[in-house]
# Entry
Amino acid sequence: MSAKEVRTIGFIGAGNMPQSILGGMIKGGYPAKHVLASNPSRPKLDLLEEKYGIYTSQDNHEIARKADVIVLSVKPQLMREVCEDLAAHVPDLDKKLIVSIAAGLRFARYYEFLGDDITLIRCMPNTPSLVGAGVSGLVADGKATTADKDFVTQVFDYVGLTIWLDEEDAIDVLGAVAGSGPAYFFEFMHGLQRAAEELGFDAEQARAMVQQTALGAAKMACESDLSLIELRKQVTSKGGSTAKGIEVYQNAELTDISKRAVEAAVARNQEMAKLF
Ligand SMILES: NC(=O)C1=CN([C@@H]2O[C@H](COP(=O)(O)OP(=O)(O)OC[C@H]3O[C@@H](n4cnc5c(N)ncnc54)[C@H](OP(=O)(O)O)[C@@H]3O)[C@@H](O)[C@H]2O)C=CC1
Ligand SMILES: O=C(O)[C@@H]1CCC=N1
# Structure
């Protein structure tokens, strides 16, 4: 697929994550008239219509019927109810491409909910998709064609980096690192902002210095050939102030804390796969 392919994409559920994806897609040039969304309550839909000019409905069946590609975007615990309802009311689900962005739930579950004949791609996106800086992990079932995979790659390329995975298990890890990752960074940034405020800065200045520092560090990490440790060392003058700050993080075993956080999130993904 060299020219950009357009299929009508219907998001079932219009919460934070699908808003980030569809917002990023439309900002990136995907035609709004081929993007649809459903949600039980109206306010989010009104906002999406106003902001992006897409068609919305409170009726999941209508959106699923109109879509070539159905993006299941509800919480994992609602997935069974929503899918079984679609299976009962939407004809030809096996002729559409289904994409699920839910954490945890495995291919086998969707076949149970929607039928064995569906074609499914699982995606683990993250919210920076809204600003074109997302990470989307993708894994396809055996029925997805090359054209399906190319199309989904194209869609998620609009909103950032796409990473195809060979094994379904890997999406739990990618989710725990990149899907949840923005929350970890925000938490860390919040801590730095609080520190600056407690040491005399007002909230606005504190936030400005933290967000610009995070942006600068992320840009350097993206643009440099050096390892992250080398980049860290460049800031850490011998006998200087950074060394003292880093020492505090190292004494608190920040690297180990990150590993424990990722392991906890992976474990929850595995647990959700069994629970829902
Ligand atoms: N947020 C993130 O960073 C990421 C989320 N995900 C996955 O994305 C999915 C959605 O998460 P997120 O957007 O954050 O969740 P939100 O809680 O922001 O949104 C969930 C949405 O689903 C709607 N909803 C509830 N019941 C139904 C229904 N029966 N039919 C259609 N829509 C319904 C809710 O509507 P209402 O408000 O009216 O109740 C709400 O708008 C989850 O499965 C999550 O695992 C994946 C990667 C990252
Ligand atoms: O917290 C969650 O379960 C979802 C998946 C990754 C980010 N948010």
Q: What stands out?
A: The first strand starts at residue 9 and ends at 12.
